[in-house]
Every structure is written in C-alpha cells, then in structure tokens.
Amino acid sequence: MQHIIDRFISYISIDTESDPNSNTTPSTKKQWNLANKLVDELKTIGMSDVSIDENAYIMATLPSNVDYDVPTIGFISHFDTSPDFTGANVKPQIIENYDGKDIVLNKKQDIVLSPSYFEDLLLYKGKTLITTDGTTLLGADDKAGITEIVTAMEYLINNPHIKHGKIRVGFTPDEEIGRGAHKFDVDKFGADWAYTMDGSQIGELEYENFNAAGAVIKAKGKIVHPGYAKGKMINSMYYATEFINSLPRLETPEHTEGYQGFFHLTKIEGKVEETSLQYIIRDHDKEKFEARKSLMEKIVNDLNTKFESDIFSIELKDQYFNMKEKVEPVMHIVDIAEEAMKSLGIKPLIKPIRGGTDGSQLSYMGLPCPNIFAGGHNFHGRYEYVPVESMQKAVEVICKVAELTATKYS
Ligand SMILES: [Zn+2]
C-alpha cells in the first residue's frame, strides 16, 4: 500500500491546474511538468510505444501476452486539476485506521472534514484516508486514476502469469475545462473500447450521461426618455421574465435528480434595450432532450405572436450527447467491468451521470468509453479525500478487466 501512496503523492505534489481562458493545449504550461514525469515513469515500468504529442497527450502500450486474438482495450485518465480551487502546494495528510470522527484538516483556519456533513466518510471507517491540509484541493480527480492505471500496468508486467490482450493507456490534459477529449487521437490510440478511470466512490460504473445543449434567448426592447415613454418604451427585461415564467418552474437542477432532466438559467444580462438569458438544457432521454429544445422555440414563437412583434430570438447549440447510445450496442464492455468488480467483492454502483465525461465525447468519436471509479470524494475543493484501499481496488479492477477480456476471447 505504501507504494501506491508514494506514487499518488508524487503526482499531486505537481500543480497541474488547467485554465479555461487559455487557448493553448495544454491550457497551462505547468501541466507539462507532470506529463513529462509520466512519460519517464511509463518507460521505467516497462511499457512499450510510450509517446507524447505536441499537445501533451500521452499514450503507451502493454503488449498482449497471449497467442490468440483479443480486442485491444484502453484505460484513460486526465492529469489536470480543476480551476475551481487551487492545486498548488498540496500538503497531503494521511489518516490511518480512520475512526469515523471529525478530521481536522487545518487547526489554524478551523477547517474540519466531518462525517456529519460528508456522510460518505463513514463508509471508510478503519481505512487509510488521504486528505488535504484544507488550503488546496487534493487532485485525486484524477491523479488517483493515473496512479491506478500506472500501478496496474506495473503489476501486470511483473506478473506475466496473468493473461491479457493488448492494453493501451492514455493520459490527457485539460479534462476539467471540457477539452480532454478534443485532441485525443482515437485512431492512434487504436483500442476497440476503453474506460476512463475518473469516477468517485468505490463501485461506480457509468455509461449513461446527459444530452446537453446551451440556449441564448434575446429579448429586444426600445429605449425612450422615461418622462415621455408612454406608449413608446419597450422594456426588454419585463419581456424576458415572461419567457422565464413560461418554462416549467420545477424542471430545474434544484428540483430534479436521477433521470430527470432540466432547464437551468445560468445568467441574465439586461437593460431596457436588450436582455439576454443563458440556459443549459439537460436530459438523459434523447426524445425528451429534443422536446425541451422544441419547447423553448415554441415559447419564443408564441410570445412573439402574443405581442405581435419579433421581440424574442433564440439560439440553440448542442454540447454533448449521452454515451448510452454508443455503449448499449457493445454492452459487453460494461458487463466485463461489472463482472470484474463482483469477482473482487465490490458492489457495482451503476447510475446515470448528471453531467458529461470525456468518455461521452470519446464514445461519439468512435471509442466507446464507460467510466469506472477512481475512489476519491468531494472533488474540486478543500474537502477532497481518497481512501487508499479504494485506489488499491481500482488497480485490481483494471487487472481483472484485462484478464476477463482475454478469457472471454480465448
Ligand atoms: Zn476527473
């Protein structure tokens, strides 16, 4: 277990925060610091075809050790951390044999990680937790995933009696700013399918995510001196509220869960002359997703008819789609992961993601790619933590998926 702790800490000690306002890839230069280290490490443990391209996408191969054809499978993680919270100077704390009580992250600043607020902690009584010192995020998202993949490859190399086909490994920058898959060369990767090791709690296995679109609704007004405005002024802000109130009030993020979709008003910018409303639209179901977009268009048309003027306009833009459509035709790739977990005594938690993943983009780029737990909790903030035993289990899941795939095709 010390080996996995040391490896994980060596990764989180390197700041790799990504930056949504940058146009380069990787979005921040410092991501190269970890990328270059990972390339060296993959070579050191004995991986083949280790490569890094001009955008810092890393790929490597573990060759097959069987003499029959097995599909090539891949494991993918991202090495950037979220710009939501600083990842510089991470000072990890290791809590052995966790007693189920409050963990003081920072005495001076009175920052406490408490199971009375974060109930998931109680799942890990007796385990070894790695936490922050309360002043940074931890970076388990997704350096836990990278730790697990590297450790699993090292284990397979050192234990050649475990039979497996060809395995590809891929590490990407900039996932946290939604660009991890953008410059991923799916052809070069050359896998039949892959898994992102980027989920949270032990057991998580995900192959459904939202369909996602963005909408901008504009209401146009007319500015006139308020003293002489009678019958002339059109105040776009009042009209904009008509639109807001025409949408189903309870179909919003704060009123929905599970498979329920929503409209989410993210921003209003208004003055008399023009008001713009920014929405995101989310639904797992493709038909309901399309119906949501149509409803917005219909409301715009209806309101323009009602006010006998083209006050409203709408622009809709699809963002990403539910990977379920691409994964269901090859459902055995989920089944293998589920079987691997069960054989290791892990209860699979299969649930829809209320968001997107790099895997959903990759699935639409031709690489079906469910998501497996990496073990961490409370991502993107000071309360982030990871149980070492969960990372260890993720290593075992990777090895078992490789082994089961080889067995099924023998
Ligand atoms: Zn992540």
UniProtKB/TrEMBL annotation:
Residues given in the record as Zn(2+) 1 binding sites: 78, 141, 198
Protein's UniProt keywords contain Cytoplasm: yes
Superkingdom of origin: Bacteria
Stretch forming the signal peptide: none
Domain Peptidase M20 dimerisation residues, every copy: 207-307
SUPFAM superfamilies xrefs: Bacterial exopeptidase dimerisation domain, Zn-dependent exopeptidases
Pfam families noted in UniProt: M20_dimer, Peptidase_M20
Database matches in PROSITE patterns: ARGE_DAPE_CPG2_1 (PS00758), ARGE_DAPE_CPG2_2 (PS00759)
Cofactor: Zn(2+)
Entry's localization field: Cytoplasm
Main location: cytoplasm
Residues of the active site: 80, 175 (proton acceptor)
E.C. numbers: 3.4.11.4
Class in the EC hierarchy, top level: hydrolase
Catalytic activity, as annotated: Release of the N-terminal residue from a tripeptide
Positions bound to Zn(2+) 2: 141, 176, 380
GO MF annotation, one: tripeptide aminopeptidase activity
Co-factor remark: Binds 2 Zn(2+) ions per subunit.
InterPro entries in alphabetical order: ArgE/DapE_CS, Bact_exopeptidase_dim_dom, Peptidase_M20, Peptidase_M20_dimer, Peptidase_M20B
Keywords annotated in UniProt: Aminopeptidase, Cytoplasm, Hydrolase, Metal-binding, Metalloprotease, Protease, Zinc
Family: Belongs to the peptidase M20B family.
Function: Cleaves the N-terminal amino acid of tripeptides.
The name this protein goes by in its record: Peptidase T
Organism of this sequence: Winogradskyella vincentii
